[in-house]
Design brief:
9 helices, 458 residues, alpha+beta, two-stranded parallel sheet, Outer membrane efflux proteins (OEP)
């Protein structure tokens, strides 16, 4: 029986551990990048753009195709030939003086009528197997510019995927530290609740011995109830933060998370002078807009050559029946070099050029606005990170002062030198200072990540 109970216990322990996930900030980012469906969609877009570049490259090579057809004619065309019919006839011979017939000549050929002959020029049943080879020879740069656009589109899509990747990392890191902050705040409030509970017991003992007023007892109990409510609310907030983190990481919401990280203020060396330059060179949003400008410029070049002639070549090899005028299978081939020149298109090509030029100007303006926004973002995130560092220093000093004040308040209250209300206020200040320090430490980690992303190094 004991063996069965032990096996049951071990099985339950294994299941519990299987449902428990230990998370660090790096592990959270790794899971978010692995499970995020938006990132998968962006990777598929990269594959699509890569295939588009390959398709554009294919336009430089000869195009080979095979076709076949069967045609049934209601009536085959015929050539009607009319030929004279000859017969050998003797001719009469007349006397020049009298005009009388004096004899006949030997028989000579003479036309006596006509004969009609029909020559078929085809057959009712027509079969054709054709192999066609086509090659574009000269297009004034249309093909090479189209290939360049496809390559730029691939680079832009890669930058978009990197942007989505960085945003996912920020979301994972922000969710992790929010959950960690909520979890540690719960622990801090629970410790404060225990301190207040012990104080409430002390006040109750003093009240029973006539050394504390009923008002002090009521105030202590009210404070204890409020603290219990805060603990309950923060536990609920911590659970919500964990669920939100699980959603960002793409893991089941019922997974038990163990968050392992230390809230400390590490030192980040910042090159303030080069931060903006780094952002302008590295930010994936700006890379996308740079590529968009280049694609728009190439689009203008293509539109300018729309009315110019293009040179091409083609060759066909046929295996068909009938072959010529004979109802049999035979081979044939032909080759063509041609030129195509759109002389008038209803001004559509001119308007397409204006359209392409307008797109280029729009892309250039979008790039300028994005660069201004990025420079502002670098300054804002840097200022935010520096402010959080100052907040950490301020709150750390506040915690030291609040802890010293609380120790002094405990001692003075036990000696009857401090009122209960003053003691409660001192404890509340200590709790608030500790929570503020935790928030500043967590906010600093997120602010640092946002600054690194702003300069393109996250």
């Amino acid at each position: 029986m004991k063996n069965w109970l032990l096996a049951f216990f071990l099985l339950g322990l294994a299941v519990t551990r299987a449902d428990t996930l230990v998370l660090t900030p790096d592990r959270a980012i790794e899971l978010a990048l692995k499970n995020n469906k938006l990132l998968r969609a962006n990777q598929e877009k990269v594959q699509e753009a890569s295939a588009g570049k390959g398709a554009a490259l294919g336009s430089f090579f000869p195009q080979l195709s095979l076709s076949g057809s069967y045609t049934r004619l209601a009536a085959a065309n015929e050539l009607e030939l009319i030929s004279p019919v000859y017969a050998r006839l003797p001719l009469r011979v007349y006397d020049p003086g009298t005009g009388q017939i004096i004899g006949f000549t030997d028989s000579v050929p003479m036309p006596v009528g006509t004969d009609t002959m029909r020559l078929p020029l085809g057959a009712k049943n027509n079969y054709l197997l054709r192999t066609t080879l086509q090659q574009t020879i000269f297009t004034w740069g249309k093909l090479i510019n189209a290939y360049r656009i496809a390559g730029l589109s691939l680079e832009a899509q890669k930058a978009a995927a990197e942007q989505a990747r960085q945003e996912t990392k920020i979301q994972a890191l922000d969710g992790f530290y929010r959950a960690l902050l909520a979890e540690q705040t719960v622990r801090l409030l629970e410790e404060s609740y225990e301190q207040l509970r012990r104080h409430a017991e002390q006040v109750a003992n003093l009240y029973e011995n006539g050394l504390a007023s009923k008002l002090d007892l009521m105030r202590t109990r009210v404070g204890l109830t409020n603290m219990a409510n805060q603990v309950s609310q923060m536990r609920n907030n911590a659970q919500i933060a964990r669920s939100a983190l699980g959603n960002v990481l793409g893991i089941p919401l019922n997974t038990d998370l163990v968050l392992e990280a230390e809230l400390v203020a590490d030192t980040l060396l910042v090159d303030t002078a080069g931060a903006v330059d780094s952002a302008l060179r590295r930010r994936p949003e700006l890379i996308q807009l740079h590529r968009a400008c280049q694609m728009a410029d190439l689009g203008v070049r293509i539109a300018r050559t729309a009315n110019l002639p293009t040179l091409f070549a083609a060759a066909n090899f046929d295996y068909k029946r009938p072959a010529g005028l004979s109802d049999r299978w035979g081979k044939d081939w032909n080759a063509t070099i041609g030129i195509s020149w759109p002389l008038f298109t209803g001004l559509s090509n001119l308007n397409k050029l204006k359209q392409a030029q307008s797109k280029f100007r729009q892309a250039a303006l979008s790039l300028q606005m994005a660069e201004d926004a990025v420079q502002l973002e670098v300054k804002v995130t840097l200022a935010g990170m520096e402010q959080e560092k100052k907040n950490i220093a301020y709150q750390a000093e506040n915690v030291k002062l609040a802890e010293a004040a609380f120790r002094l308040a405990e001692e003075r209250y036990q000696n009857g030198l401090l009122t209960n209300l003053e003691f409660l206020d001192t404890q509340l200040q200590l709790t608030q200072s500790r929570i503020a320090l935790l928030a500043a430490l967590a906010n600093y980690q997120v602010a640092k990540a946002k600054f690194l992303r702003a300069i393109g190094k996250f």
